[in-house]
Structures are given as structure tokens and as C-alpha cells.
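WARN no homologs supplied; continuing
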Amino acid sequence: MMRPRHDPTRCGALIAAFAPAGGAAHNSGMSRPVLPEDRLHPAIRPRVAAANADIVREVEAAIAAEPVVVVGMAWNPFCKRACRALQGAGVAHRYLEYGSYTSEWRRRNTLKMWTGWPTFPMVFVRGTLVGGAQDLQALIDSGELKRLLAG
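OK structure emitted
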């Protein structure tokens, strides 16, 4: 039997490593499966919890300290587009860059599993993930970004 390309148990295990204490399987109001910690063998729990945890801590620190953070990667035109849109709107932001198409994909994958957001950039406003470049542009165009930053 062929193994599927995408192994949800591996993804879920890593997501569980960054889940809030208590190991809830789902967020309230949003159904996104997360493999509960009690379904990880005790021998692997420390390894799962430590896997690329530094990148998550770095992003968490940035979004706690800065009103707007863009997490991206080199060579990605959408990351550049998000930064240009913020500059054009006169919004200061912090940019965190992790590798390129040819490097650091495992570390970026940790962020994708942590947030549930499948692409880069990841744009955070006041600690909340608002989406990518197109979502950011929609917030700018509607005036919602200014309201989020004012509140």
C-alpha cells in the first residue's frame, strides 16, 4: 500500500506541540483538527514540542511587540507586495524573513502548521493573523486596517 504524500498525523503532531495548555483538539468557533498530546507516544513528545519551536517563539515575540508584522521569505513576490502595500498606506511594520524557495522550508512549515495559514506572507495586526498580501490589501482598501490599528 502506498503511503499518502501528505501525512496528517505528522502535521497534527507538530500542531499539537504548539497548542495551548490543555491540549484542546479544536479551537472554539473554528474547526481545525489538532492531534491531542495524549495521542503522541510519551517518548516522542519532547522531540515534537522542540521541533523548530524557536521560530514560533521569535514570531510570537515580534507580534507581541509590534502592531504589524509580516512574516515572509526571499524571492516571494507576495511578501514584497504586502510590504509595499503597508509602505504605501504609511503603516510601519516589522518584516521577518525565513529562507527562500530553496532553503528553510521545514522551519516555515512549522509556522504554517502553527497558524493554519498555508502560504506566505503571514500578516499579523495587533497579534492577530489577518491573512496574506491580498487579504491585507483588502483591509487597506476598506479602511479596516486603520480601524484595527486605532483600536
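The first strand starts at residue 68 and ends at 72.
OK
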